[in-house]
Amino acid sequence: QVQLVESGGGSVQAGNSLRLSCIASGRTFSNYVMGWFRQAPGKEREFVAGINWSDGSTRYADSVKGRFTISRDNVKNTMYLRMNSLKAEDTAVYYCAADGPHSIVIVRDIPGEYDYWGQGTPVTVSS
Question: Would the CA dihedral through 110, 112, 116, 122 be positive or negative?
Answer without folding.
Answer: positive
